[in-house]
Structures are given as C-alpha cells and as structure tokens.
Specification:
It is built from three helices and eleven strands; from the N terminus they run H-E-H-H-E-E-E-E-E-E-E-E-E-E.
Length: 193
C-alpha cells in the first residue's frame, strides 16, 4: 500500500483567504495562558516589558481581615467596656485584569501585581517550580486558612486562593515563526531487497 501526498496546484489564493480569515477571528478572541517563569526567561522579558503586559488572575482570590477596637470609659458611675470588631473583605474574581506597577524590588522569580491602584499582591514561582512553574499567589499556605500580605497588612486567604496564578493573553507574546518541510521518505533500493 502506498501513501499518496496530494498537493494543491491550483487556488493558492483560496488557501490564503481562509488563513487570513482564521487569523483575523483568532486575533479578536483573547486566549489566556499561564504566565510562567519559563516564559519570562524564554522571551527574555525586560522589567519594562513586564510592566507593559496585562495580567489576569486564574481563579477567585478571597481575602479577609478582622480588625478589632476596644475601649473603656466611666460614665454616670459605671464602667463601660466596648469591644468592636470589623471584618474587612477583598474579592478578586477570575480573569480580573491587573498590572505590574514595578518589578524593581521583587525577586527574579516573582512580580507584584495590582488589581487596584496602590495595593499589590505578590505572585511567583517557588521551589521546584522556579524553572517552568506558573506564577502563583505568594503566601503562607502551611496553615488553613493561608495568609498573604496586602495593603500593608496580613490577610487570611480563602481556601482556593492558594491555587490562583497569573495569566496573560497569548497574543501579547510575539508569534513564534515556524519553518519546516515534509520529508518524502526513502524506499529500499531494489539491489538491497
């Protein structure tokens, strides 16, 4: 049985039109991919380029912090003790956009990403993931709930927050140019059969 390779010899323009239409529709759609340290190294992204990328968070991040205040006073012959508690909560939905405001003071394996002006969360690759791993939310995950630094304070992170990682639009990275050819194969010569 022989393999037959069919090569179109006519209508090369039709193939070009189909390719252009497919390319145009693909460029309109945002395809998010994990931002990894391997990608950062492979593309040799500079600090300036890192601040020009649009980042997105993969999964929800929920932060919570209890703030208590207490006081006492003597009023009308009585001791009045007050103990107020306020619970501050922060929620970041999946695919929320963020920016790297500065990468100067961060380790080579991490980025500080802001989802609102003035406050950032740190994401990075740690341990064995520093070579190719996705940039995950940095925090202390040995306890439940985990804790992260945000807005100058320690916050408790929700259960799924520890799996959150950064994503970028695939179209933000230059297209990889591929060149290649199809090898025809070799048949055993008749004198070697």
């Amino acid at each position: 049985m022989r393999d037959i390779l069919v090569r179109p010899t006519h209508a090369p323009h039709a193939l070009l039109v189909v390719t252009l239409i497919a390319g145009a529709s693909a460029s309109c759609t945002r395809q998010l991919i994990a931002f990894t340290h391997e990608l950062r190294l492979t593309e040799k992204l500079t600090n300036e380029e890192l601040t020009r990328l649009q980042y997105y968070v993969s999964t929800p991040i929920r932060l919570e912090r209890n703030v208590g205040s207490s006081g006492r006073e003597v009023s009308q012959g009585r001791l009045i003790v007050r103990s107020d508690r306020t619970i501050h909560q922060v929620a970041i939905r999946p695919k929320t956009p963020g920016i790297a405001e500065s990468v100067e003071a961060v380790t080579p394996h991490s980025l500080k990403i802001s989802f609102e002006a003035g406050h950032a969360l740190e994401f990075g690759a740690k341990g064995s993931d520093t070579i190719g791993g996705a940039y995950k939310l940095y925090g202390q995950w040995k306890t439940s709930p985990g804790t992260v630094s945000f807005a100058g304070a320690r916050w408790q992170a929700g259960p799924k927050s520890g799996s959150a990682f950064l994503m970028i639009d695939r179209n933000a990275i230059p297209k990889l140019k591929r060149e290649g050819r199809t090898l025809p194969g070799l048949r055993l010569p008749k004198d070697r059969k």
